[in-house]
Amino acid sequence: MAQKKYLAAKLKNYLREEKIQLWKPPYTDSNKEAGTELKDLARQYSARLKYNTNEIEALLEEIRCKTIERGTGNEAYNATGVATLEVALPPRMGKARKGVLETKLIITGKELRSQIAQAYGFEENCIKIITNKKQLELGKTLEEQGVKHNIKVMVLELKLSEEETRRRVQEEEMQHEEATVKKKEMHKKMQRTKKGLEILAKRDDSLDPETTPYLDIANQTGRKISIPQQAKKALLLAMGYHEKGRALLKIKEYAMALPFLLDADKHFCECGSDLLTTVDNYAVLQLDIVWCYFHLGQLDCLEDAEKKLLSAHDCFRKCYGENHERLVTIKGSSGREKALFLRLYLLQGISHYHNGREKEAAEYLQKAHGLFQELCIDPEKVNSLLLLGFSAQEARLGLRACDGNVDRAASLISNQREEKEQIRREERAKRRKRLEDINALKSMGYSERAAREALQQAKGNLELAVKVMLDNPQLLLPEEDSPLLGDPVQVPQESINQLVYMGFDAEAAEQALRVFKGNVQLAVQTLAHYGGSLPDDLQASSESTSPSGESSSSQESSTGSAGTSGASADEDMEADALNEVLKDIPEHEEDYLDLTLEEEETVISEYLSYLQHLPTEPK
What we know:
- A hairpin with a 2-residue loop joins strand 3 and strand 4.
- Helix 11 (about 305-320) packs antiparallel against helix 13 and helix 20 (about 495-500) crosses helix 21 (about 505-515).
- The chain starts with a helix and ends in a 7-residue tail after the last helix.
- The protein has 25 helices and five strands.
- Strands 2-1-5-3-4 form a five-stranded mixed beta sheet, sandwiched between helices.
- It is mostly helical.
- The model is unreliable at about 160-175, about 480-485 and about 550-560 (pLDDT under 50).
- It is globular and about 110 Å long.
- The longest helix has about 40 residues, at about 405-445.
């Protein structure tokens, strides 16, 4: 397959250079059949490439037919508005992996999915459509999603493993049932992941990590990075989807991984270019996306593969330094990150080969091969470090960072463990202090939400946080999901008298006590801050909390039982969603650098053999 792509790319390059149009005479006659000149052209290119004439002629005919089909499709589109889509199908379709589908662009993604399922025999709910480097949305029209005439779309099928699909014929019915169950579970997994990431992205470090998990962002030294909340949410979502995709890549579930990786790419693009140059995550994601397309055999569907690889290289350069000097300054070496460059060079070599550029392909594949030899690890050295109590992952990363020196690697790993533990202690102390401050503000009568937001604005200064809340009356209002919101408020006369005794107006005192649910301390602080009356925002709130005819006890009795049951179910669903995400987040922050390079070794050898068997092209 790769060799055929190489030959086709070479022929297309020749045709462009010589400005040959195969769909016109003398290569195509009036009946759109191949002209006699096509054979002469095949013999000419066969001699030039030193390939079998029949093989070259068959490829030229394939190119010719495709250009005619495209021309016919263009005429039909201009006349009727019916677009032609090039459909790339899953590997199990064998030689019939390329298809053409004609459709109007005003239909929805769901309707297109249905058409593809019907045309090629898929279960509609078990396929995903990828176009324009993102998953097709079912509810929007093709036009709204930028789908155009002659665009390529890729079909991903959630399927069983190759071993299971080769079972005996008599087990096919059971296979189908098992496949259906697995596909449904995969769909649920994706939904749980999305929900879990949304929950985690909204949480911050004011929560107790012992009871409530949350995600944070650290730099290359492991220390927390301060990022604006909106950008932080986008970055957390992007990194979360990326980790889920990486977990699926590890078990070679490429069709399942790709939608998560593309979702990660979408959220990374919301972070802003300045932020992306401070972390290498975006560059690694670009590599993973191209790697995924490669293993799906659909690199030609990723028309900007070379652009993504160039983007990854540029991001690495900005993040690590032109010659990795920034990386060496921060980490002491660049050995671990070389594994990323190995994959980058490998993919660049593959891309050049598929585009008929054998010299460039050879250059990048040799670079990849050189790095592979440099990064190969002696199993005996790994065992030596295992005996010292280090993990296999720590051993591999340590040896690569120290050029294979066992003693230096052991020292590096020990130092890293101590540094990480010190950072953890410092972060725990910061979180403990923040929780204490939040609880202090809560004890004054402020809500947890208000306390968290005020402390964030005040950068942890407790006294300033109180002023922030008083200066921002919206923070003092009950939360939208508060059980107190909307409940009737009966203000004790004793509390009103207490505020009047302090010198406040009786009406203002009653208003303030109603807003703050009878909390005398909050009412006094607010009235004193605003000169004896409530600000307009809080006065409007006091009207909405006036007592109503129905008692709170009757409302509680009619809904309490159902509410308890519903809350329990919601908590279970939330726990499932969080577990779906957290189980795929690696413990080691450099897990993405721990490539075994087994796959890379195989692919390097495969493509180098293709280049070695290329005949020498005459000059």
